[in-house]
Request: fold
Amino acid sequence: MSCLMVERCGAISFESPDQNAICIHMLGDGGLRGQTAVLSERRGSYPFIDLRLLNTTVHPGEIGTKKKVKRLLSFQRYFHASRLLRGLTPHTSLHLLDEDYLGQAAHMLSKVGTWNFDIFLFDRLTNGNSLVTLLCHLFNVYGLIHHFQLDMVKLHRFLGMVQEDYHSQNPYHNAVHAADVTQAMHCYLKEPKLAQYLTPMDIFLGLMAAAAHDVDHPGVNQPFLIKTKHHLASLYQNTSVLESHHWRSTVGMLRESGLLSHLPADITQDIEQQLGSLILATDINRQNEFLGRFKSQLDGDDISLEDADHRHFVLQIALKCADICNPCRDWELSRQWSERVCEEFYRQGDLERRFELEVSPLCDQRSNSVPVIQTGFITFLVEPLFEEWARFTDSSLLAECMLGHLRKNKEQWGRLRLGEQDAACPPPGTGQEEERGTGVP
Reply:
């Protein structure tokens, strides 16, 4: 096998996706190992799905087959390499802010544990550096810098890498979403039922996983990667493709930054593995698996927070809650997130339609409005999870607050959905139905 690249972090990229998949499998089985058992990814070693690149290089009638789509994605694989398409300078360098903005940002950080925290405003006040600023603050508040003897230069380097490797052109899966999830995780870590049992390692893992759980997200979902035979789908054998990529990329950045290089190898390896376990839990395809286990353990009063494995499972549930907590926010914040995620869905649907691929569920704007998508999302995914979380917390003030927002937002989306239906089907006798039928404006 001829190896194309062996760069920092020890990641290997072969010419054939099948060779990469075999390499992953061998590493997982212990056939090839470096210092630890976790394989990392180089930054920029896999393609970012740049919709602008696809749209500008495709002319009408030129693309009509999956084979040609694959050719375009392969082009990105070899020519993306992060610095080629994204430029040589980081997008998110830390700019100096005037004192007024810094003062307002500092004031917001003093209330970072409140559920009405406006991450959009905070991101503006920090000049697009909400993730780095928030994590530095939380690491200091929790005493993690002192406890783990972290080098501040390496910490800033790592956090800058994470923030930079989120794609700002994604309407939803960007660094602001990561900061929002991190702030939510902070709120959950402060839950009275949980907080007294958490170790510094638990808190470190929870915040790190929240910050990096969607890093380098391409703005399309797993089915899109699979049906276009994207390199990542082959690499991770069509299973938890994006989550695996987020995890391996995080490991790569940890090693490249040297953040944990002063710790014993066994501790570093354990951190990398536990980060993987947390990030992989955010795979929405595993929702029923985690929810069923959570319900079962609550029914049997079988969660002992003195047990490290049980605490880790609760952290997995907390991260899952934080990842989909947008409908539990105040309406104005929740609505913005809902519109953003649907916009990302619609962009994927437009791309699939352009390439004559089957349009993925929820990605067709013609048949799936924002109220329709959000009503279903809340009913089938969010409500069941947060009802169990409230049961776990013994209906804490925060849990009841979140459920209150959730119910109000569900009602609001329901009203908007009914409004759409009424607009689409005007009452008989108004004359509008005849006008629509004849195309009269």
About this structure: The beta strands are 3-6, 12-14. DSSP finds 22 helices and two strands in the chain. The longest strand covers residues 3-6.
